[in-house]
Write a structure and sequence with these properties.
The protein has 330 residues and is of the alpha/beta class. The chain has a single domain, classed as FAD/NAD(P)-binding domain. The protein is built from eleven helices and eleven strands. The chain is globular, with a radius of gyration of 20 Å.
């Protein structure tokens, strides 16, 4: 997820992007060619880094050629200061001590080289939570029961079944200090620690997938927009592990809305910006959550992210501004 790494790197922090494909973009790349969905509504548009990329694509790629789109994505990453990109690379192991990650081992398939990456903060934006089994981070799998969180669109008994699809995917969630539920989404997600928003319907794909003889997808309405909390973006038991994308701390029901790419792009920028702030403040995500939440929200809004229920403060008026106005400058 490029938004996470650009959000971190352009905040002035050295960042490494480890990506296991030869091109960027995930489902939106030329490999899959999925359109980017997000919050419903005629006046809602995911802004921030995603919109920057999309606007550049409109300028460079008016005919929506996927190969050119791939190059736009690569350009945004390759020309970003403080960002090192490792394509065709996968994480094979993690070195952990005292409840935190010290380094990860990476294998680059095309060069057949192994690297060790040390960092203060690690952000897992993979679709399958690759760091969970390597670090012992808490995670959930399958569908919760209706009773656990009071979610009426869940089955009566919990099971290990995952969302059906036309592709074989084993995903989908880490456990953070907050678990976003169906009821949180339905209530509009009015959290004090909002860092992103969603607005896609809760469309639950039946585990039977394309072979299921009944209705394969059930749509449950969700307000658009609804807030997503920072507490769903970092691990409950690994102190320097964050995540963004389809693997955030949500229930199966809430995931049916938060999983779309427009929403996960906002989550990526939030996680990257938070990781940079953690590095600059020399604190963990939980300490950032407790002591610097307003600073994180301000940084996101200053970087063109809209947070429901929050208003971006105007920039302070300076003597230079006053002098420019008196000279007739704009």
């Amino acid at each position: 997820m490029e938004e996470a790494w650009r959000g971190s790197a352009r905040s002035g922090v050295k960042t490494v992007l480890v990506h296991d494909r030869p091109i960027l973009g995930g489902n939106a790349s030329s490999e899959v060619r999925m359109w980017i969905c997000g919050a419903h509504g005629p006046h809602l548009k995911e802004a921030g880094i995603l919109e920057e990329i999309q606007l550049a694509n409109c300028h460079r790629n008016p005919y929506s050629n996927y190969s050119i789109w791939d190059s736009v994505l690569y350009e945004k990453v390759a020309f970003c200061p403080n960002l090192t990109v490792m394509l065709n690379s996968t994480c094979t192991d993690a070195l952990c001590a005292n409840g935190q990650i010290e380094a990860i081992e990476v294998w680059q398939m095309t060069t057949q080289t192994r690297s060790t990456i040390e960092a203060k903060i690690f952000v897992d934006c993979s679709g399958d939570s690759i760091l969970a089994p390597l670090t012992g981070a808490f995670y959930r799998w399958g569908r919760e029961s209706q009773d656990e969180f009071g979610e009426d669109i869940q089955p009566t008994a919990a099971d290990g079944k995952t969302r059906g699809n036309s592709l074989l995917l084993q995903i989908r969630r880490y456990v953070g200090p907050q678990i976003l539920t169906q009821n949180d989404v339905a209530a509009g997600g009015r959290f004090d620690d909002i860092v992103a928003y969603g607005g896609w319907s809760m469309d639950d794909h039946h585990p039977g997938g394309l072979l299921y003889p009944g209705q394969s997808t059930l749509f449950h309405p969700a307000p658009s927009p609804y807030g997503i909390p920072f507490g769903s973006l970092y691990s409950a038991n690994v102190s320097n592990l964050m995540f963004a994308g389809r693997n955030i701390s949500v229930t199966h029901a809430a995931l049916s809305s938060t999983r779309v790419m427009g929403t996960t792009s906002l989550l990526g920028q939030a996680a990257g910006t938070a990781a940079a702030l953690c590095s600059l403040r020399h604190c963990s995500p939980s300490e950032l959550h407790a002591n610097h939440m307003r600073q994180l929200q301000k940084n996101l809004m200053d970087d063109d992210c809209w947070l429901p229920g929050y208003t971006r403060e105007s920039s302070p008026w300076t003597n230079e501004d006053a002098g420019a106005k008196s000279r007739g400058s704009t």
